[in-house]
Write a structure and sequence with these properties.
This protein is an alpha/beta fold and 322 residues long. 29% of the residues lie in helices and 19% in strands. The radius of gyration is 18 Å and the shape is globular. It binds zinc ion. Residues 1, 132, 153, 186, 293 line the site of zinc ion.
């Protein structure tokens, strides 16, 4: 993401598209009473496991950089499809490609894992799963060509949502919940019209039929051991009621020392295309991460307890709403 307000004019350079519903793991209609624990899900709120989320960070980093077109990206896409199809009620896989400014054709894939899709308009939770090809913020010039390991920038938000998906499978929520993992957030250099937010832009312009999420929450860089999340400026302007809801939950859970109520950074990120598509969406991000876009963005900079705090907030959000 970038800390800049740019006009959101995107050149459409998608050259091929394919979307497929690949799994209906739990079978049958999402209805009342058909799924055992679902019937009583409205009152039971499971506990988010931050340590398990941390293991999912380690697992993602072990694939190597998840740069579109790389072996690590391919391997992780396969793993994500397997993981999510085993847990979601419905998994929609959006495969597409994009010709980047560097001339490469990037193979990209978004995953939309749906839980109780017919129960209510879903809350949409999203994160980017790709990682950045270059460490442009590295102190040493010789490090700047290296790919970012992406433990925090990429894997942290994805890990929280994968762990949440596991929980949503075990304890169905009282409402519709969509987990969206978008690709191609971090490929380009964030000049207008550049190769960034590719997956969220694609999703926003290829929404499932009659798609109407109630609101959206983007998780980006939520694993910093020293976690401080301030209200993000574009979120505050575009979706203030969602900011109120999420910060209200954090406060009631006792996390006011992590979720600070004032605006600090204004950031262009995957939430912008969703707001443009009419889904009020905020960005939950700790942008004060010293290892951002460097080769030092590794799992030791991330903690289970930080992931646990953010995980607890989204858990409360989907099981209780407030
Ligand atoms: Zn990044």
């Amino acid at each position: 993401m970038s800390e800049r307000r740019a006009s959101r004019v995107w050149a459409g350079r998608v050259v091929a598209t394919a979307a497929a519903i690949v799994a209906t793991a739990c079978g049958g209609a999402d209805g009342e009473g058909g799924r055992g624990p679902a019937a009583s899900a409205a009152t039971s709120e499971p506990r988010f496991d931050g340590a398990a989320a941390f293991e999912l960070v380690v697992q993602q980093v072990a694939f190597g950089p998840r740069v579109p077109g790389s072996a690590g990206h391919r391997a992780m896409a396969e793993w994500l499809e397997e993981y999510l199809s085993a847990r979601a009620d419905t998994l929609i896989v959006q495969r597409f490609s994009h010709v980047a400014l560097d001339g490469r054709t990037l193979p990209l894939v978004n995953f939309l894992a749906r839980f109780r899709p017919s129960a209510s308009p879903p809350v949409l939770l999203l994160a980017h799963w790709d990682t950045r090809p270059v460490s442009d913020q590295a102190l040493e010039p010789e490090d700047r060509g290296k790919p970012v390991p992406g433990a925090n920038d990429g894997a942290s938000g994805t890990a929280v949502l994968l762990q949440l998906a596991d929980m949503l499978h075990r304890v169905p929520p009282p409402r519709g919940v969509d987990v969206l993992l978008v690709d191609g957030e971090d490929y380009g250099d964030f000049t207008p019209g550049d190769d960034v937010f590719l997956g969220s832009r694609y999703f926003a312009s290829h929404l499932p039929q009659d798609y109407a999420a109630e609101y959206g929450v983007l998780l980006d860089m939520v694993g910093d051991r020293d976690l401080d999340i301030y209200v993000e400026g574009n979120s505050n302007q575009l979706a203030p009621e969602v900011v109120d809801r999420v910060w209200g939950v954090a406060q009631r859970l006792g996390f006011s020392d992590v979720f600070h109520r004032r605006v600090r950074h204004t950031i262009n990120d995957d939430h912008i295309p969703l707001n443009e598509a009419g889904i009020p969406t905020i960005n939950v991000i700790d942008f004060d991460f010293p290892y951002w876009h460097t080769p030092e963005d590794t799992p030791d900079k991330v903690s289970a307890s930080s992931l646990g705090v953010v995980g607890a907030v989204v858990t409360r959000l989907v099981y209780r709403g407030r």
